[in-house]
Amino acid sequence: MGVIIKNYIKNLKNEKAHYIFIGFPLIISICVGLTLRGKMFEDYRDTRSRLFAIVCVAIWIGLFNSVLEICKERSSIKMDLDSGFKAIELFLARFIVQAVVCLFQAIIIFVICALFAEFPSQGAIMKPSAFEYILSIFLITFSADVMGLFISSLCPSNDIANRSLPFILMVQFIFSGQLFELGDTLDKVSKFTISKWGMDLLGSIGNITNLTITIPVDDSIYDAFEFTSSHVITLWGILLLFIVIFSVLSIFFISRIKFEKK
Hints:
71% of the residues lie in helices and 0% in strands. By secondary structure, the chain is an all-alpha fold.
């Protein structure tokens, strides 16, 4: 396992991945941070839209990290499998490194955003709330990252993976329930999106239903954004479930690479 991790990190260094993993999150976080100024944590509608922007950034960055990580190395992965390495070992090497990357990126996202807007000092569980926000942004980013690994394990080429990315992002954003109201059927679909649970999580930590509400809202928001420790822990658990499911699926499809023809 250690050898696989070292080789994977070496490949990332050769690709100058630090520009992607650090530079890209830094630039996009600054862009989002500029939009946070104003009625952040004063008005419900404005705060919700700004928190949703952070969720979108986290998902975008997570997918961007990993959507090519398996398909671009498909030939070498096949050779590793033929040499006796197990699919779970090849996956875990990427999983561990990507987890560290996502944690660092979550810190960047929060710190940059906190420079432009004052976040509440008290979270639903922790004080200061910064740790709660960073952990939550990490889980959103890493959920998207592992989903990217799953997509990458499915796609036989970089071109197909890149073409799938806009569609995946569109599904995440449209079915989040934040851009417009969803009907009963589509609301059920939203429960399969990281964006929906990520938005519920950040909104709950920020206690946004306690802010000034100037527009009519559905009573369901009080359940979605419940400001309690049990609710936040449940949402963390849901994102962890996404990570587990996408991990299992990724390992399965990586194992199938062994049987592909060159």
